[in-house]
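## tool: complex_structure
## caller: assistant
## args:
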Amino acid sequence: MSPKPNNVIPNPGVVGSNPAGPVCIGIVLRFFDRHGLPFPRARKRAGGGRPSSCMMSDDLMIRADVPDPKVHGIPHHQTMASNVMGDSTLTILLIEENPVRAAILEEGMRQSGYAHVIRISDMVNLPDKICAADPDVVVIGLENASRDTLEQMFQVSRTVRRPIAMFVDNDDGAMIQAAVDAGVSAYVVNGLSKERVRPIVDITILRFHAFRRLEEELAQAKEALEARKIIERAIGILMQQQRLSEDEAYKLMRRTAMSQKRKLLDIAQSVVTAAQLFPRG
Amino acid sequence: MRSLEPFTGVMQPESAGDALPTVTLGFIPLTDCAVLAVARELGFAAREGIDLRLVREVSWANIRDKVALGLLNGAQMLAGMPIATALGINQARMHMLAPFCLSRNGNAISVSRALYAELAKQGDPSAGAAEAGKALAKVIDERRKSGVPVLTFGMVYPFSCHNYELRYWMAASGIDPDGDVRLVVIPPPLMVDSLRAGHVDGFCVGEPWNSLAVEAGLGRIIASKAELWRRGVEKVLCVPECWAEDNPEVLAALVRALDRAAAWADDPENRAQLVDLLAGASYLDLPAAVITRALAGNMAVGSGEPPRKVDDFLILHRERANDPSITQALWIYAQMVRWGQITRRPGDETRVRAVFRPDIYHAALAGRPWFSDAAAPEPDITPLDATVFFDGRPFDPTRIDAYLAENGGSFGTGIGGGLPVP
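## result:
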C-alpha cells in the first residue's frame, strides 16, 4: 500500500513542483533552538534541503483579527495559549481547500512562532503530498472529505510516521468540544505530548472562528448592498412614475413603512414588484 | 451539522401525544443510504414513534468521530468499521453494535478507458470479473517488463468492503494488491475527478459514482460486488453499545421502522418515487437518471454500450438482506488479518462475533404479521456457500486459521505482520 518512492514529490517547498496539481507553499523562517542558536531545520530533514521560499499568494495578505474571547465564548486559556511562542521544531501540515481560511490559519501559526507550516490546498493526489511533508501535526477541517484519505496513510504507510486522531484517548473534553464546534480536527504523530499539541489546536480553533466571522461579515455586507440596490430602484420608480424628487420618494417610502409597521426594504420591494406587474410605458 | 428539511411525508404517527424520542443518525450521500432516507421521509420512523433526524456527512472518519463523541446516536457505516473499532484498529476504540444491515452488494469496479483498452488487448474484460482479472494480471506483467509505473486503484476507506473486494478479486486473479498495484483511499465525490486527472487507473466505489464515471465518458465498469461476493454485506446501521443498552425500546422501534422502509425501498413499484427522493438536494443531489441504474440493476457499463442487466446489483431488503450475518462479519475479519491490518490474536474472534447483532434484529421484529418464516433466524454460524464468491472458493468461519493458511500465505507481503494496535 505504501506509495512508491518514485512517486513522491521530492520537494514540497518548491512552488510549481507538481505541474498537474496545486502548489504547496512551504515557509521556512529562521528560528532558534532551546539554546538560542540558529537552527536550520531543513538540514535535519531526510531528503536534503528545503528551499527558503517565502512566496505568498495574494490571499495571504488578508488579515484576520483574533476574535474577542468574550464575544466568541472561547475559554480564556485558549487565547492565552496562542500567545505562547510556538514550538519551532514541529512541522505542521495544513490541509485546507478554502484559500482564505488557509491563509488565516497559516498566518496564525506564523504569528505564534510555528515556523514550519506546510499547506496543501488541493486534495487530488493527497497521499504523495502528505508523504513529502512528513508532518508532526496535521490540521484539517472536520468537514473535509479527505480525512478518510489521510487516515488510510496513517493506517498502512511506512513512509509516514503514524499520527492518530486528536479525538482518540483525549481526556480534555472542553478542548474537543471547542474543536468540534469550530469544525476542526487534527492528527498528531504518536507520542507527541499533549502540551506541545494543545497550543496548535487552540490557534486553529481561534482562526476557524475568525474565518467564520469574516464569512458572516461578508454575507451581511452583501445583503446590505442588495438591500440598497432595491431601495434605489424603488426610489427611481417613484421618481419616474409619481414625479417625485429623490428625497420625496425616499420620505414617502419611509413614512409608509412606519405607518404600516414594515421594513423600508419590504416597502421598496413591493414598489419594485408592483412596477414589474404593472409596467407603464 | 446540516439538518434536513422537516418531514412532510404521507403518513401520520400511530399515536399522537408526547414528543417523540429523537434519533439522530449520520449518513453518506450514496445510493445505499436509501433505507434511512425512506424511513424518515415516508414516515416509517414516525409511525414507530421516532423522530428520525438525518445528518449528511462527508467522510467515514467524521461519522466515526461524531458517533464516538455522542454527537450522533448512530449512523450508516461500512460493514468493516464497527469490526475495526471493536478490535481497536480504527482510531477510536469503542463498542458499537450493528443490529440491521442497510444494504447488500451495490459496489462496482471501474477502470479508465485507457486501462480498459490495455485490458482488451490481453483478454476480454467485458466477460465478467474472472476474465477481467486475468486480463489485468497480464497487463501488470507487461507493464512490469517495460518498466511502466504501477497502476493505482482507488477505494473508499481502509476498513471498507471496497478495499477487501478489490483485494480479493486481485489476489484471486494472481495479482498482489500490496506489491503489483497501489491502493489509495479517495472520497467517492473525488473519484471521477481522480480518474480524469490520471491519478487513479481504476477504483472500487459504491453507486452512483461508477455510473457517473461512465456518464462522463471516463470509466468502464468491469465487475460488480453482486458478482464478486454475492449478497455480501455493505452498509450497516451502527449504534454505540451503551446507547443500545440505555434505549432498547427506541432501538427496537428503529429496527422495525428500517425494516418497513427497506421493504418499501426494495419494491420496484416505488422505484420512481425513491429515485426522486434520493436525487433531492437533502440527499445525493445528483441526476435521477444515474441513480436509478443501481436500484434497477440496469447498468450502463461503458459509454456507447447497451445497458446490462446485473441481477441483484443492489439489495435493500429481499432474501433476508437486513438480517446481519455473523458469518459475513467473520469473513471481513479474516480479510483484515489476511491483508495485515491486524495480527491474529486470541479473543478477537469473540469480539467480532459480538458486533453484528441478529438477535436484536429478530427480537425487534418477532410477532410482526409481515415477519414471516422466510425470515426465520439463520443459525448463528453457517459457512457461506462456496458459490457466493466469484472464484468459488469457500469460507468456513469455524476454520479461519485454515482459510488464512490457504489464502494468506502467498500474498500480503506489503504490510505483513499486522499493525501495532494503539
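## assistant note: The radius of gyration of chain B is 21 Å. Residues 20 and 49 of chain B are 6 Å apart (CA to CA). Handing back to user.
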